Amino acid sequence: MRENVGLFTAIDNNPRNGEVSWEEYHAYFLRSHGFSESYINSHDKKHSEMSRSLKESIMRDRARWAEAARNDPEKLTLDEFLAFTHPESSHRALLQMVEDLFEKFDRDGDEQLTEDEFSDLPSDGVGLDLREDRQQSIGGSEDRRKEFRHLIDKNKNGKADRTELLMYIDPRNPRHAIQEAQHLITLSDTNLDGKLDLPEILSKMDLFLGSKMVDTERSFHDEFR
Question: Which domains does the chain possess?
């Protein structure tokens, strides 16, 4: 997050006024993809000669920009810019994910998830991808039920309300790091002693380098895409 504050300051330069305009960001985008200053200053607005993949990236950025801009559609404040660069951490995005959970899994419509309802969530986790084609129910799994009892149902009333679910899916919740560590140990602990030694880690180097614990920014964007 600190890096994005620095990025905001670096982009906010024409003029430096505490806001980043779409033109300033677009110039930064083009510059970061190797386009010359002459192209940036006088390019075809439709980018006729640009590759399709870069055009699609610009369109996605523009859509996320529109979502983050609450006051001026052409400018972002620092808070809005942080929501733009890390939509998975924005409060509004998390609230929408909670609403999606209720819509899909709150069978009795009481706006609370019971342990039974929670145990029917997709096997790839809460808040990661709620599209219909990704749902693979692990209904009634004991692991999911333990997760509900110990990590979600803070007031121990047998139900999860919006506040409890919001805390649970927040990327800053320590449970994400705990689950990833358990996952790495399960896949790498070849002698089954519950610990990892250096040879075990080195034998799974690609696994660790691609881990959420190493590349957290990429993993958050992948999970909440």
Answer: 1-85 (1.10.238), 91-169 (1.10.238), 174-220 (no CATH)
